[in-house]
Structure formats: structure tokens, C-alpha cells
């Protein structure tokens, strides 16, 4: 089925938790199901979505009506809590979608939902966003991120052509968070351990790797996600020191330590729009 298929609906979908699987102490895969997923837009694995979470006394989130000017709720109180996540895997043929949640306690509604999730629980999702494709064709790939970017990175690695070459730097809290990732032989994965504010070893090693591969930089593609410090630190080096064109760099801060997603919204856009 193609993206132009007339049966594809660009509407939010109400999902039901089918199963919950712990992939580590701080990482939980939730498989959701809905017959509506048969008509969900085809998308790259790793694409971003908004999840819609119930609040207060609601037993399930209220989905919006889709209007020409965007989603609309009958009243402001109906509006669910919104958070941004990634499509880890989509199986439209069986009406299933996997979303991987980094668990960071019950201080945020998304993490709280994931910690308590049981089969039968409900959550809404928006249609998928870009980029499409997730990675532009390139001779080498350089990817970096933390637990929140791991779902997108793992999905992109699985979908890479078998002869791809590249380097991936991943920061997780400690060795219990390590995962076996499926990836092409020519892609090296390096893990770093530390809290979100301890990113300098990852940044130094990533830059060293680029220094050694400098002759490939002009036809490489860079993908950076995760806590703001990783994304901004690496983007600065790639853009300023290596003079890589913006079109070759995806750099999206996924979250910022100390800010919830709502309070981070405006700053995130300033960071993204910064041309450095
Ligand atoms: C394009 C995109 C794709 C994303 N994909 C995923 C994904 O697939 N899986 C995923 O887990 N996250 C993903 N994220 C990150 C996720 O949106 C944020 O971590 C979000 O803040 C989580 O919402 P929450 O309700 O749990 O916490 P919030 O209510 O937003 O925040 C509450 C508090 O927790 C802190 N916090 C938020 N996230 C973390 C964290 N990971 N570790 C420690 N403290 C944290 C905040 O700084 C704040 O102090 C993605 C973000 C973007 C922009």
C-alpha cells in the first residue's frame, strides 16, 4: 500500500495496550493494537508521533476532531496531555504498533503511563511526522543519542542497507541498559555510561571519530537526538569545525533536563532554528 492510497487516514488513532515488555531497567516496549492501524499512514520506523494521554478522571484520552486548521477539542478540559515519541515498529497488517519508553520515574505523564501500563489501557497517537526518509542517502552515517533516541536509532539501524558504513554513539545510565542492536557490519556502535549532564566523553569520542574520518565528512549524514547537551554539543562541532552543510544534519533536542515537554517547547524551537 502506498502513501497515496485513498484508504490511508491522517487521523489520530485510539490504541489499546496489548503487551508490555521490559528491555532493561529503564526501557519498556509497549505493543499497542487497533484495527484502525490498517489505515494508518505508512511511515519510516523511527518517525515521530504525538502520544495523547488521559488525565484527571478520564479513563481514556479524548481524541480531537480534525479540521482544516488542525486538531480541535470540544473544550479545553478535554485536551489530552501530549508528548512526543517515536514509532519503534509498525505492523499495519496485524494492527500493531510498538513504542519504546525510557522510564524516568513517575514525574512525567508519559513515563508514568509506561510504568503503570497494563493490557487494556488506552492511549491516542497522531499521524506520523518526518523526516521521510529518516536518513538521507550518504556514504557514511554518524548517529548519536541517549535512551530517548534509542528507539529511533535502533529502528534506523535495522532499516539501513546491509552495506552501510558508519558510527553510532549511545549514552545510557549504566551497563544494565545495554541492548543488542541489529545493524550492518560496517556500522560501529559505541556505548557511553553516565547521567544526562555527563555527556563530554561521548562528545569527545564522537569528534575524535570524525577527525579520523574527515575525508568522508562531505558525503556523510549526521543524525543527533536526545538530551539537549548531546545534540547542541555535537551539532556545534559538526557545523562550525567541520563546516558540514545543514542539509546533511538532523539535530533535534528530544528533551532538556529540568524541563517538561510543555515548558521546553519554545526553547526547543530556538535551539532547532539556531543556524550554528
Ligand atoms: C522527535 C522526538 C521523539 C522522541 N521519541 C521518544 C521515544 O521514542 N521514547 C522516549 O522515551 N522518549 C522519546 N522522546 C523524548 C520524550 O518526548 C521526552 O523525554 C518527554 O519529556 C517525556 O515525557 P514525560 O511525560 O515522561 O516527562 P515530562 O513531563 O516531559 O518531564 C518531566 C520531568 O522529567 C524530565 N525528563 C523527561 N524525559 C526524561 C528522561 N528520558 N530521562 C530523565 N528525565 C527526563 C524532564 O526534564 C522533566 O524534569 C522523543 C522526543 C522527541 C522530540
What features would you describe in this structure?
The protein has 276 residues and is an alpha/beta fold. The protein has two domains: 13-125, Elongation Factor Tu (Ef-tu), domain 3 (Beta Barrel), CATH 2.40.30.10; 140-273, Rossmann fold (3-Layer(aba) Sandwich), CATH 3.40.50. The chain is 21% helix and 32% strand. Strands 6-3-9-1-2-8-7 form a seven-stranded antiparallel beta sheet. A five-stranded parallel beta sheet has the order 12-11-10-13-14. A two-stranded antiparallel sheet has the order 4-5. It is globular. The site of flavin-adenine dinucleotide (FAD) has 26 residues, from β6, β8, α1 and β14.
Q: What is the CATH topology of the largest domain?
A: Rossmann fold
Which small-molecule ligands are present, each listed once? flavin-adenine dinucleotide
Rg of Cα set: 19 Å
Shape: globular
Strand content: 25-35%
Largest sheet composition = 7 strands, antiparallel
Amount of helix: 10-25%
Structural class: alpha/beta
Question: How are the secondary structure elements laid out?
Answer:
Blueprint: E1 13-24, E2 27-33, E3 48-53, E4 65-67, E5 70-72, E6 81-86, E7 89-91, E8 96-102, H1 109-116, E9 122-125, E10 140-145, H2 150-159, E11 165-172, E12 186-193, H3 200-212, E13 220-227, H4 228-241, E14 249-255, H5 261-273
Parallel strand pairs: 10-11, 10-13, 11-12, 13-14
Antiparallel strand pairs: 1-2, 1-9, 2-8, 3-6, 3-9, 4-5, 7-8
Helix pairs in contact: 3-4
Amino acid at each position: 500500500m502506498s502513501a497515496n492510497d485513498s484508504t490511508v487516514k491522517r487521523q489520530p488513532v485510539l490504541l489499546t495496550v496489548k503487551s508490555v515488555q521490559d528491555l532493561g531497567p529503564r526501557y519498556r516496549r509497549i505493543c499497542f493494537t487497533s484495527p484502525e492501524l490498517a489505515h494508518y499512514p505508512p511511515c519510516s520506523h523511527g518517525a515521530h508521533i504525538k502520544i495523547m494521554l488521559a488525565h484527571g478522571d478520564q479513563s481514556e484520552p479524548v481524541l480531537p476532531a480534525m479540521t482544516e486548521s488542525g486538531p480541535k477539542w470540544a473544550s479545553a478540559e478535554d485536551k489530552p496531555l501530549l508528548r512526543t515519541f517515536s514509532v519503534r515498529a509498525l505492523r499495519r497488517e496485524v494492527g500493531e504498533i510498538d513504542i519504546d519508553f525510557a522510564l524516568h520515574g513517575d514525574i512525567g505523564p508519559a513515563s508514568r503511563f509506561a510504568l503503570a501500563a497494563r493490557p487494556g489501557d488506552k492511549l491516542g497517537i497522531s499521524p506520523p511526522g518526518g523526516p521521510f526518509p529518516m536518513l538521507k542517502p550518504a556514504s557514511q552515517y554518524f548517529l548519536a543519542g541517549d535512551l530517548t533516541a534509542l528507539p529511533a536509532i535502533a529502528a534506523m539501524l535495522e532499516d539501513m542497507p546491509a552495506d552501510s558504513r558508519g558510527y553510532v554513539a549511545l549514552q545510557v545510565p549504566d551497563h544494565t541498559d545495554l541492548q543488542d542492536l541489529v545493524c550492518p557490519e560496517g556500522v560501529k556502535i559505541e556505548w557511553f555510561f553516565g547521567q544526562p549532564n555527563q555527556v563530554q566523553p561521548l562528545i569527545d569520542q564522537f569528534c575524535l571519530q570524525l577527525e579520523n574520518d574527515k575525508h568522508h565528512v562531505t558525503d556523510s549524514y549526521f543524525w543527533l537526538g536526545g538530551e539537549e547537551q548531546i545534540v547542541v554539543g555535537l551539532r556545534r562541532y559538526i557545523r562550525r569545525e567541520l563546516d558540514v552543510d545543514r542539509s546533511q544534519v538532523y539535530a533535534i533536542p528530544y528533551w532538556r533536563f529540568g524541563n517538561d515537554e510543555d515548558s521546553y517547547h519554545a526553547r526547543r524551537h530556538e535551539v532547532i532554528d539556531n543556524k550554528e
